[in-house]
Write a structure and sequence with these properties.
Layout lengths: L20 E5 L6 H12 L2 E3 L8 H5 L5 H20 L8 E3 L6 H8 L2 H14 L8 E6 L2 H11 L2 H4 L3 H16 L5 E6 L9 H10 L7 E4 L6
Parallel strand pairs: 1-3, 1-4, 2-3, 4-5, 5-6
Helix pairs in contact: 3-4, 3-5, 6-8
Length: 226
């Protein structure tokens, strides 16, 4: 493994060392799991992917009473467990994950009522200090209408049941969260005009940007097709 994120030329300057823990984040169908998989393969990294088998999620989508709280607490526990067991500072290989532990709060604030949120926050505050901040977060954003089109194209029954209003609320909550985020180096990527899941040239353009270091908060606005 080289010090570069990818096999390719690195911009001249001080030696660029691969971040030890990279997180790819963003709302539904923005491409975070696809990019995380590509990065993990290129880096020969350990993968830490989000929970996809939450047993309370179906009831949440069916709007059953109490299901939102049960689903949220399960996500909180499972995300914490996966990150702690991965031990980002242990072992020779870097870690790539497709979720940030703090993002759990984004959905809690949207889905829980005030009493549920107060209880949730007690558990979140208990668990959060044991989760180290990643070295780099790649935040993929897209306009709500773009996300809706991608959800429709994917055709997942659970996802298509999500209302446009909810999807817009999630996208807006992500925007507010990352506008204030300062715990790690952050690269904000607007994917509204590109589709690196479907177009390899868009993926390669993003990978070229990731061969350069990210310091603080930086923005990447790909050119797209036109």
């Amino acid at each position: 493994m080289t010090d570069s994120l990818f096999n390719g030329p690195v911009v001249p300057g001080p030696a660029f060392k691969t971040p030890r823990h990279i997180v790819v984040e963003g709302p539904i169908r923005v491409g975070k799991s696809t990019l995380a998989k590509v990065l993990a393969e290129r880096l020969h990294a350990r993968r830490v992917f989000d929970c996809e088998d939450n047993p309370f999620l179906a009831d949440f989508y069916d709007e059953k009473p109490g299901a939102a709280f049960r689903a949220q607490m399960y996500f909180l526990y499972e995300r914490h467990r996966r990150l702690i067991e991965a031990r980002p500072d242990d072992g020779p290989a870097p870690i790539v994950s497709d979720f940030l532990f703090e993002k759990d709060k984004i959905f809690a604030y949207i889905n829980l009522d005030n009493e549920e949120l107060r209880l949730y926050e007690k558990y979140f505050d208990l668990l959060a200090p044991s989760v180290p901040a990643p070295d780099l977060v790649i935040y993929l954003q897209a306009k709500p209408e773009v996300l809706r089109k991608r959800v429709s194209k994917k055709g997942d029954p659970a996802e298509t049941a999500v209302s446009g209003e909810y999807l817009e609320a999630v996208a807006s909550a992500y925007e507010h969260f990352f506008f204030r985020y300062a715990a790690s180096n952050l690269l904000v990527v607007d994917t509204s005009e590109i589709d690196f899941v479907e177009r390899n040239q868009d993926l390669q353009e993003l990978l070229r940007r990731l061969r350069q270091p990210v310091k603080g908060t930086q923005y990447f606005l790909p050119l797209g097709q036109g």
